Amino acid sequence: MCFSPAASFGSSSILVVVGVVSLVSSRSTAQRVLSGIPLIFALQQFVEGILWLALLHPEWAQWQRTATYGFLIFAQVVWPVYVPFAMLLFEHEARRKKVITWLTIGGSVFSAYIAFCLFHYSVLAVAEEHHIRYDLGFSLAHQWYYGLLYFLPTIVAPVISSVKKLHWLGYLFLSSYVVARLLFHFFVISVWCFFGAIISIIVLWMVLSSRRAKDPLARL
Fold this sequence. Notes:
The chain has a single domain, classed as Rhopdopsin 7-helix transmembrane proteins. Helices cover 69% and strands 5% of the residues. It contains eight helices and two strands. It has a two-stranded antiparallel sheet. The protein starts with a helix and ends in an 11-residue tail after the last helix.
């Protein structure tokens, strides 16, 4: 995870297993997209493991830039689009679907802007105190509302879903961010990955429990 190369690679391996089991157990397109969450977390942690090696061992230094951008694309660009899109696939109520659609569009615009900034401003990754600190060189990243813009589509979309089980994803995204912000202020981007395993296990539980015919996730 965010503490060492071994932790990152170890968590990546576990998340791959969780993601594959979830994917194989899925019965619909919506469930398969939802099952992509632990698999994306797995890729994210694998890339950060490579970054750890690049930061700690000179023989891996040539991978530092690639791994830094790879991790940040997963951590900063993918989630504001992927999460509301996944929620949209489950939605059947017209009013909620309209709101989640706008959240998906808003998340897409935000992610596109962040992707532009990542490649047009300086980006730095530094290993400190058993964590990786990411310094983003664009001004928006240092504004108090940056986290709000990032998590608005990521949290609100599952919370307002008509499928109550999906609310847990929003609650976990919010609580994990708050804990990371309060306890690891300078390492939020990296430490937040710690909660990816918990979120992924919840996804697996949702998919496996949907095998019951009356489960809301089984309807789609």
